[in-house]
UniProtKB/TrEMBL annotation:
Residues 21-81 form the HTH tetR-type domain. One of its GO terms (biological process) is negative regulation of DNA-templated transcription. Residues 44-63 bind DNA. GO terms for molecular function: DNA-binding transcription factor activity; transcription cis-regulatory region binding. It comes from the Bacteria. The keyword Transcription applies. It comes from Pseudonocardia broussonetiae. This is TetR/AcrR family transcriptional regulator. Keywords: DNA-binding, Transcription, Transcription regulation.
Amino acid sequence: MPANALQTSPGSAPRRRLPRAAREQQLLDVAEQLFIDKGYDRTSIEDVARAAGVSRPIVYQHHGSKEGLYLACVKRARDLFAVRLAAAREGVDDPREQVRISGEVFFAELERDPDRWIVLFGGAAVPMIGELGHQLTELRFRTVDHTIAHLHDAVTSAGSAVDEERIHAFAHAISGVGEQLGRWWIANPHIPRDRVVQHYTDFIIGGAQLLIGPGLGTRSGPGGDG
């Protein structure tokens, strides 16, 4: 989550030397919070530099551009999510439980900070066009690749025929389910998270049975994020 770098007023953050890796993370913390508070379009490199207590050349040196900053924020968030998801699913063999855990981790992320989720996972911060849109799509596809791998394992375990087109299509559909169900939940926050996770699990398992078969195998099941 973002650091407390933005709790001071603009321009008041003291300049201090940091190791390169620490500075990169600090700039991401600052930029992420600005994207959440102001929106992507209204956030400038000058805003990031001022809040971080550095000059604009320092920001450019580490991340190249505002687009580079945003991409780095999204990549970091998705990488951290993947780590949490892998840890939560470790040692779990039951396919339905794997899907439920995937939904639990994903929607817990949303519940913890809905605004952050919208900016970094919900696909609403920037138009998905041009070079930035292309690179954001690549990041999403990289996440979906994990779901594709799990589906391959599940199909193989069930002894079903591997249909690459169906596996890829279903993996991307799972991604869309998570994102759209998340948007629906944001609009209906009175619904408990466990019921949202249940809806997600039922839908994914129902679709997976058409793809894999009613047994779904025992070693690995589908499930992922937006």
